[in-house]
Amino acid sequence: MDSCRTFVVITLFPEPVLGVLNSSILKKAQDKGLVRFIVLNLRDFGNGRYRSTDDYPYGGGGGMILRPEPVFRALQFAQTLLGVPPEGTQKQVPLPLRIVYPTPQGQVFHQKDAWAWSLDPRPILFLAGHYEGIDERILQGNPIEEWSAGDYVLTGGELPALSMIDAVVRLLPGVLSDPQAPQKETFSGEMFDYPQYTRPPVFEGMEVPEVLLSGDHARIVQFRREKAREKTLRVRPELLE
């Protein structure tokens, strides 16, 4: 498969999504030809003259639900862009891409999942819901994975999608200037990352630990390991169990 990884986001709010994708590390990854981002406006696939995408829920209740037709058309269009045949929309046919629906009802996304996705060459398509969610028939009729950014509720699926994209992209070979950086970060092992310091050596009466200025690599490694363990025990002790 193409070494350039592809990420697709279907959303009602393409502008803020593009703003994030076209900045910082994500933009650098694009400029290097390592990733490609496609953002589709769900409104373009809406119903009727006014491109309607939502409606009231059957059975009553507050909020609006994304209608199945616009979502289905957007999924089909995205799959066509990626070279997936129309019959690939059927659940029994394995797709050469991963379709992700960010939802608080999904399995929680962890660093180990980011690593797994970074090693999977398939394109990843994110369906960013809004309002009270999407019509359940979309989830029933398509091989969609439900993933959560955590046990809390957000207004839409854009922020979880962007956080997952960022977590995966930064693990791809060539994206970060230091290829060893991901191996040193929080959650790459069993502990948090160690505390970091930069200039000036003294700020508001607080000094950088002497060991970090010593030039003694062995002492620095030991200090960082101890501090990482201390913080992990204090904040997330279950990670060390």
UniProtKB/TrEMBL annotation:
Example GO BP = tRNA N1-guanine methylation
User: Which residues of this UniProt protein bind S-adenosyl-L-methionine?
Assistant: G129
Q: Where in the cell is it found?
A: Cytoplasm
Query: In its keyword annotation, does this UniProt entry include Transferase?
Result: yes
Q: From the UniProt record, which GO molecular function terms apply?
A: tRNA (guanine(37)-N1)-methyltransferase activity
Q: What is catalysed by this protein?
A: guanosine(37) in tRNA + S-adenosyl-L-methionine = N(1)-methylguanosine(37) in tRNA + S-adenosyl-L-homocysteine + H(+)
Question: Whom does it interact with, and what assembly results?
Answer: Homodimer.
List, alphabetically, the PANTHER family matched: TRNA (GUANINE-N(1)-)-METHYLTRANSFERASE (PTHR46417:SF1)
**Would you tell me the protein name for this molecule?**
tRNA (guanine-N(1)-)-methyltransferase
Q: Which organism is it from?
A: Leptospirillum ferriphilum
What phylogenetic lineage does the species belong to?
A: Bacteria, Pseudomonadati, Nitrospirota, Nitrospiria, Nitrospirales
